[in-house]
Design goal:
The N and C termini lie far apart (about 40 Å). The protein folds into two domains: about 35 residues; about 40 residues, no CATH class. It contains one helix and two strands; from the N terminus they run H-E-E. Strands 1-2 form a two-stranded antiparallel sheet. A hairpin with a 6-residue loop joins strand 1 and strand 2. It is mostly helical. Helices cover about 35% and strands about 10% of the residues.
Amino acid sequence: MFAFLKHCLDAAWGSFFEILSWVCVKRRVYFAKLDPSGISQTCPQCGTHTGKKKLSECVHVCDEYGYASGGGIVD
């Protein structure tokens, strides 16, 4: 029973991303699926590994490049 539910959930997410991709193409908005492992630990400017952060940390700072930006948490 649980295997069936997991397959249904996987199919729903697959459909969601397919529709989202289509809508982004139609509206000329860039869309890309990312591997979630480690994406918040890499500087978007230079690619340097900046280390693991806590969920409460809202600011990204790269000591190597000097880049700083706000996080994805909205208060």
